[in-house]
Amino acid sequence: MKRYEDTYRHKGLRQQLIDTLKEKGITNEVVLDAINNIPRHFFLDSAFDKIAYEDRAFPIGEDQTISQPYTVAYQTQLLDIKKNDKVLEIGTGSVYQATVLAHLGARVFTIERQKKLFDNNKNFVFKSKYPNLKFFFGDGFQGLPTYGPFDKVIITAAAPFIPPKLIEQLKTGGYMVIPVDEGETQRMLRLTKKADGTYTEEKFEQFSFVPMLTGKNV
Ligand code: SAH
């Protein structure tokens, strides 16, 4: 059974991480404050306790990773979360990114395709703190048609293409933040949905994500 303890040492390391994120160009204070408030080491195996605040991705089982804090901060900043925004996340993984979104007051709907990772959500440590965070088992390429449309959509795995069903489930004026490409690295895109159903595209930095895969893995 994991012990959840947020010590002064953890808090100090978290503050150092915030300084690193600022140096790397993250400017949104609300996003930085959320990261400063969420104990990332709670989302990792205790073997990673000492290194949990390095700006790195770490394994979380099933060949998957918790995203690097810089990536989480970057995607969250691009989403420009407003309180009560309805947000769809593809790739729950460790639940860290979803927790950052919930902390910012979004109504978060997060989907995971790996049954084992999804089952871990039963023990989510902040279940009562964030009733605005809901977990789904399924294939992110399908989205959640019955819960949409969404103000924002975030994809936290490398998408081979822009999933049409996720565009359909986005509100007019809504943002999708998505790393696209099948190569070694992916370009971060922010799409803005137009009233005619098409979208405009802004291009950002290159990142490296685990692949977005089709179907469920039970
Ligand atoms: N947001 C996560 C990042 C996890 S890595 C975090 O903060 O920890 C990406 C996750 O996307 C993995 O857990 C992977 O299983 C999941 N994934 C990949 N393709 C998917 C799909 N089509 N639908 C849902 N989840 C998917």
Mean pLDDT: 96
State the CATH class of the domain at 57-207: Alpha Beta
Principal-axes geometry comes out as: globular
Helix and strand element order: HHEEHEHEHEEHEEE
Give the tally of β-strands: 9
CATH topology of the domain at 57-207: Rossmann fold
Bound molecules: S-adenosyl-L-homocysteine
Beta-strand content estimate: 25-35%
What structural class should be given to the helix and strand makeup?
alpha/beta
The CATH superfamily of the domain at 57-207 appears as Vaccinia Virus protein VP39
Architecture per CATH nomenclature, i.e. the level-2 architecture of the domain at 57-207: 3-Layer(aba) Sandwich
Give the structure's gist in a few sentences.
The protein is an alpha/beta fold. It has six helices and nine strands, in the order H-H-E-E-H-E-H-E-H-E-E-H-E-E-E.
List the helices and strands and how they pair.
Elements: H1 8-23, H2 29-37, E1 58-61, E2 64-66, H3 69-79, E3 86-90, H4 96-103, E4 107-112, H5 115-120, E5 133-137, E6 150-155, H6 164-168, E7 170-180, E8 186-193, E9 199-207
Parallel strand pairs: 3-4, 3-6, 4-5, 6-7
Antiparallel strand pairs: 1-2, 7-8, 8-9
Bound molecules: S-adenosyl-L-homocysteine (SAH).
Give your account of this protein's structure.
The strands form 2 sheets. Strands 5-4-3-6-7-8-9 form a 7-stranded mixed β-sheet. Strands 1-2 form a two-stranded antiparallel ribbon. It has a domain at 57-207: Rossmann fold (3-Layer(aba) Sandwich), CATH 3.40.50. It is 25% helix and 26% strand. By secondary structure, the chain is an alpha/beta fold. Strand 3 (86-90), helix 4 and strand 4 form a beta-alpha-beta unit. It has 6 helices and 9 strands. The model has no long low-confidence stretch (mean pLDDT 96). The structure holds S-adenosyl-L-homocysteine.
